[in-house]
Design goal:
Helix content: 25-40%
Shape: globular
CATH architecture of the largest domain: Alpha-Beta Complex
Radius of gyration: 20 Å
CATH topology of the largest domain: Phosphoribosyl-aminoimidazole Synthetase, Chain A, domain 2
Largest sheet: 7 strands, mixed
Distance between the termini: 31 Å
Number of domains: 2
Length: 342
């Protein structure tokens, strides 16, 4: 354990420090198939019968608009990445003491209920309170799903030689957050209402949910590893896959699709799009021979998909092939770039 009393930046803890903390957790129940590991975003518990339980929790802290929808979907994303069907949802809702109204409470409740219902999830409980010294609502979601034991997918399943596929593009969630939380600033920069509304709507189109694409991929192919990049963006998501799988990776930068609005926001706010929160993107490791067929299937269902690289032996490192053909180390940060503008 580190002895220096360090101060931390916003966002995730550094992987090396988090790894030290996790190494001290003792699994005391042999029914735990998968516990806390870097790159593995949900736990897996053995139960009698043909299924495992998949258990996930995640908070929403960056945004206030549509926070109920966010809270459900980010948890769904991690559950479906393990091949599981999301089933039961709980939430802890913390509300600021000076500006919480019945309208705010009911909007969050309704959003959670409607979103869960649309995916076939049952809301089974939770906790809500007015909390001192908060300046915005915080919602922590907890989701339980089920997966057949022979269909479990782990982030650690990628192997050297596997193809790495990216869906939709990157900086999707970050675009929606900026559109919703920085609307006044965008107007001051003379962006049109149409542009701002389009950024806001990235929440739904192309959308932060990976439910559809994960379901398609898992149903039709033997997926080796599946991961949705959140805080830290696509490069951190890729790094987490390699940490979990004990591999290296080589990425072709020009294959990573950046949608028009994220590209503009990256320039305006001086953000690195590869290191900005990217829920809505899905990283899929699949056998090389299946990669083209999987891409074709996703595109037939109106989901943009592209092979962006390959997993390689760990000793080869994490490499990005730049647009000019030169190779460089893949640089990532656990601290999301978007935190610099909040």
């Amino acid at each position: 354990m580190r002895r220096v009393n360090e101060k931390f930046k916003l966002g995730k803890l550094k992987h090396d420090y988090l790894g030290q903390l996790l190494s001290e957790i003792e699994i005391q129940d042999n029914r735990v198939v998968l516990g806390s590991k870097i790159g593995e975003d949900a736990a897996v518990i053995d139960i009698p019968g043909e299924n495992y339980l998949v258990v996930k929790t995640d908070p929403i802290t960056f945004t206030t608009n549509e926070i109920g929808y966010y809270a459900v979907i980010v948890n769904v994303n991690d559950v479906v990445c393990l091949g599981a069907k999301p089933k039961w949802f709980q939430s802890t809702i913390l509300l600021p003491e000076n500006n919480t109204t019945t309208e705010i409470v009911e909007k969050i409740f309704n959003s959670i209920n409607i979103t869960c219902k649309s995916i076939g999830i049952t809301v089974v409980g939770g906790h809500i309170e007015i909390t001192p010294r908060l300046n915005r609502p915080i919602v922590i979601g907890s989701l339980i799903g089920e997966v057949e034991k022979n269909k479990l997918i782990l982030t650690s399943g990628a192997e050297p030689g596997d193809a790495l596929i990216l869906t939709k593009g990157i900086f999707i969630e970050g675009t929606s957050i900026i559109g919703r939380e920085k609307e006044k600033e965008l107007k001051n920069k003379r962006f049109s209402n149409d542009f701002i509304e389009k950024c806001k709507n990235y929440l739904y189109s192309p959308g932060i949910s990976v439910f559809k694409e994960a379901l398609l991929a898992n149903k039709n192919f033997k997926i080796k590893s599946c991961h949705d990049p959140t805080e830290g963006g696509v490069f951190t998501g890729i790094a987490e896959m390699t940490i979990a799988s004990n591999t290296g990776v080589i990425i072709e930068e020009e294959k990573i699709f950046i949608l028009p609005e994220p590209k503009i926001l990256s320039e305006i706010f001086n953000l690195n799009p590869y290191n900005t929160i990217s829920s809505g993107s899905l990283l899929i490791a699949v056998d090389q021979k299946d990669s083209s067929d999987l891409i074709d299937l996703l595109r037939k269902h109106d989901i943009n998909a592209e092979k962006i690289g390959n997993f390689i032996p760990k000793n080869k490192g994490l490499i990005v092939k730049k647009k000019d053909g030169k190779k460089a180390p893949l640089k990532y940060s656990e601290t999301d770039d978007i935190t610099r503008i909040f």
